[in-house]
Design goal:
With 393 residues, this protein is of the alpha+beta class. Strands 4-3-2-1-5-6-7-8 form an eight-stranded antiparallel sheet, covered by helices on one side. Strand 3 and strand 4 form a beta hairpin. The chain is elongated.
Length: 393
């Protein structure tokens, strides 16, 4: 092995020691979280409702239903999840964030819980911040993921066979060999096959935590071109006079506009401004629980005036790609097959630190070979001297 590969091996090994445990935890939790919607749909009955031939409740009506349950609460978002799913409301109550689920047709309260308090909420916390304090956990997580990206690249360099005749053997696992050889192949061969998917999921995951990664994806996809209107922050003006009927709540006006301009939307997220100057933001998605191909709206929260409408067709390539980030990260951008691929990739990623450690420990405990055929050192034979006749007397 040349000096270059020795340096790569040293880097690969010790970076693995540093990040192995964190990578294992992130991979296992990501693997579990991948099918969280499907699993929760099969467990919780409140996540499905009977479809009725009638319109959904207006947002203002939903607000009143929430205040009947928590009079002192503050609503932060209202989500229409499609014709066969409940309305989901996020509400701040006594320093806790509650999730309330209503039948979108009758307004019946189906379920309430502390937001992200269920099992998959716990899994997500571990996946994102390792159950450490938020900022510390995020930092440990994204540093470990960056290290893991480097490990995958260095592993590819170490694995790549020099001779063409060896490449075919390098792509398969020798199941009939001894367990050490099988473990070696599991580490190298499976690591090779998942490298591309790992890099995609890792980079998409890093963009959630690191603004420079998100911005980098945006700039690369846009080939360096800038679109200032896409980054503009729209603010409300409490003195503005809108052109809408004054007897209709602003949130209902906004909802009606979204329904008119995005008729194919089955998933509508309404974010209520926390600050007085904030605008009322609405995002319309075509498919429930998927976050790609969205139309964006901004309304004045006092007058109801439409401040911005950005349909998906008019977005830059960079913004479209960033909007697809979650679906890419979970694999659902490619439907069920995509989720299965990401699930298997996460599972294999969790095994790589384990198989790598076994390889290292196996080399450390390797017994020394006995030297065969080496002559023993010559020793002069000792000859007994006869006793003298005088001594014998």
């Amino acid at each position: 092995m040349g000096n270059f590969k020795k340096a790569i091996l040293f880097m690969h090994r010790w970076l693995g020691f540093i990040s192995g445990l964190v990578v294992f935890v992130i991979s296992i939790t990501g693997c579990i979280y991948c099918f969280q919607d499907e699993i929760q749909d099969s467990i919780y009955s409140y996540r499905k409702v009977a479809v009725q031939n009638k319109p959904f409740l207006q947002p203002s009506v939903v607000q009143q239903l929430c205040f009947q349950t928590y009079p002192d609460g503050k609503i932060t978002s209202i989500t229409y999840n499609g014709p066969d799913r409940p309305l989901a409301i996020r509400m701040a109550v006594n320093k806790k964030v509650m999730a309330l689920y209503f039948d979108p047709y009758s307004g019946k309260l189906l379920y309430k819980e502390v937001f992200r308090s269920n099992f998959f909420g716990w899994i997500r916390k571990v996946h994102v911040n390792l159950f450490l304090p938020k900022e510390i956990g995020k930092a440990v997580s994204y540093v470990s993921v960056i290290i893991f990206v480097v490990i995958m690249i260095t592993g590819l360099v170490l694995w790549w066979p020099k001779r063409k005749s060896d490449r075919r053997r390098s792509f398969t696992i020798k199941w009939g060999a001894k367990w050490k050889r099988v473990n070696y192949d599991l580490h190298n061969v499976l690591g090779f096959y998942v490298t591309a998917i790992v890099l995609i999921t890792a980079i998409s995951g890093l963009s959630f935590s690191l603004k420079w990664v998100n911005k980098g994806i945006y700039n690369v996809a846009n080939l360096g071109r800038s679109f200032p209107s896409e980054n503009k922050v729209y603010k409300s003006d409490s003195t503005a006079i809108g052109n809408y009927a004054q007897n209709e709540p602003v949130i209902n006006q906004a909802y009606a506009t979204v329904r008119k301009n995005s008729p194919a939307a089955n998933y509508i997220l309404i974010l209520l401004g926390a600050k007085k100057s904030a605008s009322l933001l609405v995002t319309a998605y075509p498919v429930p629980l998927e976050f790609s191909f969205s139309d964006h709206y901004a309304f004045d929260q006092y007058s109801g005036k439409l401040l911005n409408f950005l349909p998906n067709a008019q977005k830059s390539a960079g913004l479209k790609l960033n909007n697809m980030n979650y679906d890419i990260h979970t694999g659902q951008i490619a439907g069920l097959l995509g989720k299965i691929v990401v699930f298997l990739t996460s599972l294999i990623s969790a095994t790589l630190p384990v198989t790598g450690l076994i390889i290292y420990l196996g080399k450390k405990k390797k017994p020394k070979k006995k030297q065969v055929g080496k002559p023993l050192p010559f020793k002069k034979p000792v000859v007994a001297r006869p006793l003298s006749f005088a001594a014998e007397k």
